[in-house]
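Q: Convert this sequence to structure tokens.
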Amino acid sequence: MTDSKFDPRGTAADPASADGPQAASPLRLFDSHCHVFREEFEGDFEATLTRATQAGVDGMIVVGTTPETSGVAIELAARHEGLHGTAGLHPHEAAAYSEATRDKIRALAERADCVAVGETGLDWFKEWAPRESQMASFRWHLSLARELDKPVIIHSREAHEDTLALVHEYPGVRGVMHCFVMGEEEMQPYLDAGLYISFSGIVTFKGSRGNQAAARACPSNRLLVETDAPFLAPVPHRGQRNEPAFCADTLRFVADLRGEEPVHLGRTTAANTRELFGLTD
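A:
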């Protein structure tokens, strides 16, 4: 992940300004993880929010990945109803982990309108930052989340054993395994640690059999859905820029896997998201 962004802080979503009538959706759901501050949304940010509303998306967690984007995410959320910002340093950016970076993230995370610490975690697949920096950054985020009693948003790619080991170092920490791509066996110890599990568009991919099994087995009170927009668009949008409206496609797919009505599962996952992040809207 690169730190590419535009500055949407001067814009405000106006659903009435979108072209054409707004189609009503029976779904009510929550995108538990997106990055709509990125430059991919420059030029149609307001339309993106409108499409999300039309698809039934009532809220979004806008996840920061650096001190700068975390500040933008939180300010963006302050200007748009239903959006909620977080503060953290993505593992891809962990080479920048330093006392100065910690101070900036802490100052943002301590704000009442910052709903979570992260995105943080470990990525041994791309390894864009040294492992030691990623480990140190992840430990600090876990400690900060527990200290502030805020949930932590965890990224883990090809790093299951190390991720779990660090989670176990901080018992009682609350949070979510974002964009969970592993299987049922790997999921269980995160559930045992008290974490929520969030499924992205990857679960809709034809080759994601293990991840689909995890989505079927995940307890309903720990299940979230997300886009990780602009990345990882679900089928039938695979290959396109992802956006929060597409969360509905992932939700419907997971509901079908579980033999549940999408409307019911949408409400369940939205309630789970609000509970985890301490939201009332």
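Residues 255 and 265 are 6 Å apart (CA to CA).
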